[in-house]
Amino acid sequence: MTKFRFLAVAALLAAPLAHSHGDVTPQAVDVSKLKKLDGEQTENPYRADKKAAKAASDVGSSAYNQNCARCHGLGAVSGGIAPDLRMLPAGKEGDEYFSEKIRKGVIRNGVTYMPPFGPIFSEEAIWAIRSYLDSVHVDE
């Protein structure tokens, strides 16, 4: 009986994850090579400095592939499951949209389409992924 209770409790705790779009288990992002950021940013702080943007893009590429590609596709090319992130608007407009979605996730009609990564990713990781997406951006 104890084994069954444990399994029942485990199933209840895992239920919200089972309904998440893509059922992604977040992977750690090594941001040790990036400039430390203070507080929540509203624009990509790495974009203005070419060297910082390149380093962030390299870190972001790995982070994207480990955490985002399962739903958004390799190279940010969507296979139809989730939005094609190469098409995010460039600059501040795209930063605001990206920041909002990655931090809070996407829930529609009570269904989690994308889990919130804000509590999981560091500020550096969030903007490293955005830097990577900047590097693969295409105009529609």
Can you characterise this structure?
Helix 2 packs across helix 5. The chain starts with a helix and ends in a 5-residue tail after the last helix. The protein is built from 5 helices and 2 strands; from the N terminus they run H-H-H-H-E-E-H. It is mainly alpha-helical and 140 residues long. The model is unreliable at 7-12 and 14-21 (pLDDT under 50). Strands 1-2 form a two-stranded antiparallel sheet. The protein has one domain (21-135): Orthogonal Bundle (Cytochrome Bc1 Complex, Chain D, domain 2).
Features:
heme, globular, 5 helices, 140 residues, mainly alpha, Cytochrome Bc1 Complex, Chain D, domain 2, two-stranded antiparallel ribbon, signal, 47% helix
